[in-house]
Amino acid sequence: MKRKFEILEEDEKTDARVGILRLKSCSVETPVFMPVGTNANVKTMTTRDLEEMGYNLILSNTLHLYLKPGHKMIERFGGLHKFMGWNRGILTDSGGFQVYSFRKIRKLSHDGVFFKSPVDGSEHFLTPELVVEIQESLGSDVAMVLDECPPLESEREYVVKSLKRTTEWAKRCKNLHKKEDQLLFGIVQGGFFEDLRIESAKQITALDFPGYGIGGLSLGEERETTVRMLEASLSQIPKDKPRYLMGVGSPDMILEAVERGIDMFDSVYPTRMGRHGVALTHHGRLNVRSGRYKEDGEPLDPKCDCRVCKTYTKAYINYLFSRKEILGMILLTYHNLYFMSKFMENVRNSIKGNFFGKFKEEFLKSYLSSS
Ligand SMILES: [Zn+2]
Questions:
Q1: pLDDT digits (tens, 9 = 90+) for 142-167
Q2: Domain residue limits at 36
Q3: Count of domains in the chain?
Q4: Separation of alpha carbons 79 and 247, rounded Å
Q5: How far apart are CA 24 and CA 139, in angstroms?
Q6: 146 C-alpha to center of ligand 1: Å?
């Protein structure tokens, strides 16, 4: 039997690598970016759009689907793939991060986390066991363990306790998880303390998961801190396992992480930007709503060959946004996701061709120049 994850090429000068992740639905080349489909859809995109752009792995949110329409309902439809009309890969998160974001309406205990639904105020108790049960019902290709993400300003004492809890919960998830065609990834936490990052990574990797997420970063800390915490976490994760930096999706940060050996990313960044009128381009972010594009007959990004850039002008999209037309959001989301898909393909090609360093330098020079 072929291994679930295999490294195909390694960059000679850095820790960047190209790998293949073999999932039940399809094989995925890494480094990969996963668009976020919170409520069983990537906002404004059809699954056909995503296929056309070359995506074969997306992320969906366990907690949202548990609240609505309910995992049992999705199971009756034959699982999440059938329910949403997508037959390629799906990774489901564990809900740990969402619960973290409901900070005012949650209560943590040894057994799990109690919270009130932001949708209807109903009360729920999320446990490691329930999180595994939900993800097994959804039938995702990759499931994540329940973890606790300590807030940015947490004291060391709190992070020490939280880290222990995350390890305990990871153990309980692993013990209960039975679905053979679903990979269950562990999650490294440890707040913003290098030694605690190392400690968490040691404890989680000792449980031997087929892949590892690195959580609790990009909460608003300095970029230099993100990189330091990332390096500390990675120092303990075996090289032959897929490594997933959770919730990070800006191209510049992706390059820093790929250089250090990260294989997987997810973020709402390109889709959220698109809905707010911001295009990602080779010259950085472009706010198409700005008055300066009112009569601009050029495409969003002359270097992009997506069907939006081939067909429409900045002036037209600017006009759609000024009229609050839904099509504006659809077109920008499409372009942004296409941009990310191509970007990741170029990252992989640069590693295969042994010029990752040069690619990174040239991309950043143009991307950070901002037109
Ligand atoms: Zn485009």
A1: 999 999 999 999 999 999 999 999 99
A2: 5-97+128-267
A3: 2
A4: 24
A5: 10
A6: 37
